[in-house]
Amino acid sequence: MRTLFASPILRFVGRRLLYSLVVLAGVLVLAFALVHLVPGDPVRIALGTRYTPEAYQALRSASGLDRPLVQQFFSYAGSALTGDLGVSFRNGDPVTATLLERLPATVSLAIVGILIALLIALPAGIWSALHRGRISDGIIRVTSQFGVSIPDFWMAILLIGLFASTLGWLPTSGYRPLLTDPGGWLRHVILPGLTVGLVAAAIMTRYVRTAVLEVASAAHVRTARSKGLAPAVVTSRHIVRNALVPVLTITGIQLATILGGVIVVEVVFAWPGLGRLVYNAVAARDYPLIQGAVLLIATLFLLINLIVDVLYAVVDPRIRLS
Amino acid sequence: MRRPAVLTAAAILLTFVLAACSTGERVDLGGGSTGNLVAAIAGEPDQLDPQKTSAYFSFEVLENVFDTLVEPDANLEMRPALAESWEVSPDQLTWTFHLRKGVKWHDGTSFTADDVVYSYRRIIDEKLANAYRFATVTGIRAPDPSTVVLTVQQPTPNLLTNIGGFKGMAIVQRKNVESGQIATHPIGTGPFAFVSQRSGDSIVLRANPDYWGGAPRLSGVTFRFISEPSTALSALQAGEIDWTDSIPPQRVAQLRDDDSITLAVTPSNDYWYMALNEAREPWNDVRARQAIAYGIDRAAILAATSYGTATANQLAIPKGSFWYTPYDKYSHDIDKAKRLLDEAGVGKQSLDMLATGDYPETVTAAQIVADNLAPLGITVNIHTVDFATWLDMQNSGDFGMLMMGWLGNIDPDDFYYAQHHTDGKFNAQKFSDPEVDRLLDAGQVETDRQVRRQDYAKAATIIADKVSYIYLYNPSVIQAWTPDLSGYRARRDGAIRFRDASLGRDGAN
To answer: What is the largest CA-CA distance in chain B?
Structure first.
């Protein structure tokens, strides 16, 4: 029996994992440097109108900013690795707990949004490509252009107006945890999910269409067709599967974007996600919270990248060998 | 591979249909009782320690959780709260407060005079933002569990307003503070007790059946954080929330005609003003400042910043207050402005106006001012910065003109001393007038209310005549609620009190 790492796919994953760790270390340095790179004294700025010499000294020593830089970094990095991201400047809450409290809402929105986007973009993009130049292709392209152009806050307000105010089918805003109230969770996640999903779908439809068009004119597809394979088989086995790589890329990017916080959608739907948290933290100059959020979002990005990379390798054998 | 995907799609579609079929039922976070009120506020409290927070969102919630020794009634006159009565010694230097007996903290322990001493000492000893309200206080003691004695170094006619004017002076519990819980799990003596908070989403309070003012009729209050006004209004119209103050002024005209909600537009004690930097030429000349006061179009500024919901006022204190003084010297008069500039020998000028996007009215107003002053040969350069920078520039005198507002003042000393006394802490415009100084000093110790009112009327008139501030208007407190809500009134000081409120649905009225 061969060792585990002899399997090319595992070797590929191992390599990717290593890259991710290197990037993460870089992010850690940047997040730490953030406090020291902003112009002015972070403690002074964080205190703002509440500034007094006593409060200044207290916050400065509590946040460890009075110690040597190198010592500060290793202490920060060490704590961060054990999951301790410090406490908020503003109210003394542990940053890790605050971020974890917001994560379920953000993940809910991202997963529902990306599912809706895929459900729309895959069929629409494939159909559009296979019926290139026909009226249906034109309709899909114009609609997706429209979807890309419409601002998300406007779409959100329209959706609330229709489904919540006029029809009364869904709540206007708010969030329920999936575990304690699944029905409430679903009713609350649909409108924000639809908003981010429709915007992402509009973008992704165009990518799917282009990817399918590219593959559809490739030599191997012509060969498959000339072999007399049924059109459905050619489409599913020879076109769509090969077109999946760019589609995976854009899906990963869209997912990461939503996870990083869709502030406008969160604001309109009063959704307790990471976006609003980060926005408020920036407005309040709450550096520990900003640092923690940067780390968390970067980790999520890397995780998604890793998953997408692995999926590449599954879909396209050439990639794992390169 | 393909079939499961189709199945998933079908399942998701089905759940959509199911979800769509359940009608927009009432959202209830507070344990299923119909007597629970859902209020939408426009942002999340930064923390729940009333003595440390400075955020209005915090006070909206904490108004219902904490008490002060005395508290403002609807006309902002102080009335008993945790103190049942009080007396002042003949020399005006000793205030004795008799506390209400049988008051309990939300954790069931008894409230005593020690709690008051602890709370006040904390504000003073930790030099919290409100420590200045105790500037004249020299001693705080509790001779027995239901008596608190404050000694002051000079007669302090506004002592009651200082200790009761707002919830930043709340009486807190020592154990709650020392355990570090107060910022996240506050314990008060008020009509509602804190239950829980969901970050970014809501805070839940439940009624305190042992409240000294009588058990509230609501079973609880849930504060949801909805910062987008159009969402808050949709939620109100859909019946998901019962009350909100997340209402932009431009929607007021339209909402007045909406029978499905009750709208309150109440002039507040807040005010907006402009000030010229008197440390800079030519604004040290009173005539140059008066020229600006005549040169700006106040009506246009009011209309553009508040959509007509504010009340024009050329002094700070609004009509309806005991301390109100009628004054309307300034009109929009370009000729007069030009004459004043000529007299002062002011030629073509450029004026740096400081504005901040955190208060959009300052940016809007700056644009109008720039337009207004162009015919006078004054070029206005608008600097728009964030509020932290704004404060910094104001404090270092790095401005020609600025616009800002003051919130939450009740006593005339709060309105005028720090802003216009030569040694005032917030006199960034560097105004100095011996007569104003004398009157403001006198007002701080004058115990005859009528004489005190005359002092402040005179001081305010000089302040406006000599253009320390160009007073613009008092904005309105704008709130909307369901017609089912009764026993609630919008207050001039913006305090949100649900203690006497009830919801028609539960048949309480």
So the answer is: 92
Q: What is the pLDDT of residue B353?
A: 96
Sheet with B137-144: list strands edge to edge. B83-88, B94-99, B147-152, B137-144
- Please give the structure tokens belonging to residue B174: 């020592």
**pLDDT grade for A13, boundaries at 50, 70 and 90:** confident
pTM: 0.84
CA A150/CA A137 separation, integer angstroms: 20
Average the pLDDT over B265-293 and give the result. 94
d(CA B308, CA B147): 48
Residue of chain A whose alpha carbon sits nearest to that of B130: A50
| Residue B201 to residue A149: CA distance in whole angstroms | 30
Bridge partners of residue B147, in order along the sequence: B98, B144
A268 and B230 in contact by Cβ < 8 A? yes
B19/A170 Cβ within 8 A: yes
Instruction: Give the mean model confidence (pLDDT) for residues A66-95.
Output: 81
Residue A63's contacts (CB-CB under 8 Å, 6 or more residues apart) are: A43, A86, A89, A287, A288
- A181 vs A175, A185, B25, CA distance in Å? 10, 6, 14
Residues within 8 A of B (CB atoms), A 194-223 only: none
Does the beta carbon of B503 lie under 8 angstroms from any beta carbon of chain A? no
B189-203 pLDDT per residue, tens: 999 999 999 988 999
Amino acid at B495: A
Residue B45, preceding peptide bond in cis (omega within 30° of 0): no
List the strands of the sheet with B401-406, edge to edge: B311-312, B470-474, B271-276, B401-406, B349-356, B378-385
* Separation of alpha carbons B469 and A226, rounded Å: 86
CA B326 to chain A, closest CA, distance in angstroms equals 33
pLDDT tens track for A112-163? 999 999 999 989 988 888 888 888 888 888 888 888 888 888 888 888 888 8
Residue A78 has a CB neighbour count (10 Å cut-off) of 10
With an 8 Å Cβ cutoff, are A160 and B19 in contact? no
C-alpha dihedral (B446, B449, B454, B455), degrees to nearest 10? 20
Q: CA A265 to CA A248: how far, in whole Å?
A: 24
The ipTM is: 0.79
Task: Check: CB of residue B174 under 8 Å from CB of residue B115.
Answer: yes
Query: Chain A contact for B234, CB < 8 A?
Result: yes
Q: Decide if B224 touches A, using CB distance below 8 A.
A: yes
Q: Is residue A171 a contact partner of residue B27, using CB atoms and an 8 Å limit? A: yes
Q: Which parts of B374-448 fold into alpha helices (H)?
A: 387-395, 412-420, 434-445
